[in-house]
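Review session, final week

We close the course with one last complete record, chosen because it touches almost every idea we covered. It is Glycosyltransferase involved in cell wall biosynthesis, a protein from Blautia pseudococcoides with 328 residues. Go through it on your own first, then we will talk.
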Amino acid sequence: MIEYLFVGGTDGNTGPANVNKGIVANLTAKFCISDSKNKFVKYLSAIINTFRCKVIIVSGMSKVGLYAIQLAKFLNKKTIYIMHGCYEIESGLNDADADLRSLQMEQYILHNVDLVLPVSKRYGEMIQEKYPFCKGKTAYLHNGVDKVDLIHNGIKREKGRVVAVGGDRKLKNNITIAKAMAKLDGNKVLTVYGHFYHPDDLPKSDNIEFKGLIPQEQLYKEMMRSELYVLNSIYEPFALSVFDALLCGCSILVTNVAGALELLDVTEHDVIHDPIDENEIAEKIDYLLQNPNNARLMKNLDFEKISYKEEVKKLENFCKELCQKSRS
């Protein structure tokens, strides 16, 4: 019997959309979903199923998710919010003008849901520190990581090639990686993918390439060509891209704020402790190009325990616990 409604967009190639695809593909018969390219059908499905279900799960911030939570609250139904990011925090870090309606939507959701599930433990701790009213109703649910066999099609890895994603967004901090690379010899080349908001301000160097947005499949190919993937964010709730890089055969160098580190058995050389320290980043890039960590990290990953199937089981248990609390 259907008991739980999952509301989460699966269109596009954003982090939350990719996670939602993984969740939806592994939902059991106790779940129904509200997701359609037809806007009217999507909203109608959310309304009808909110009446039918005991627990409404909203994954990522959206208008349809907001309306489902509002209706659920009116009907005294239990609600869960899977929190992939925080609009207020990210707007501040990117020095962007925050949209008032989006801020209000986020605050309404956080104040009114029964359970907040950030996508990592450390991110959950950050959210509770930022919003004390979330204490007592916050747990965490990691993004799922499925082991997939990517087809290399004869793609050869290029010696000294380093890759990063996220363009020049301030919170991704790729400009610092570029400055660190400029300290290394010209045989080591950095390629940064993503949208560039300030192209005239990008560092200039023969061993640094800035390229635009590319489809996910093309990014996999670029990772297969590279020896090292660097993630130097100053804020990173989870970071699925780290696992994409590992599955593509890359070594990884990861910021110490990434939630993904909770699933990895890392050493000192695998982690950036100060994301603005160009010397630390340069030294660790140089070290990892000579001492790859991909095989070691992959060997210690238990994909059965971190799969979407397992994360959906945890989500279902959270739903059951909320239902039990409502009866007691």
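Two points worth writing down before the exam:
The chain has twelve helices and eleven strands.
The first helix runs from residue 15 to 24.
Good luck, everyone.
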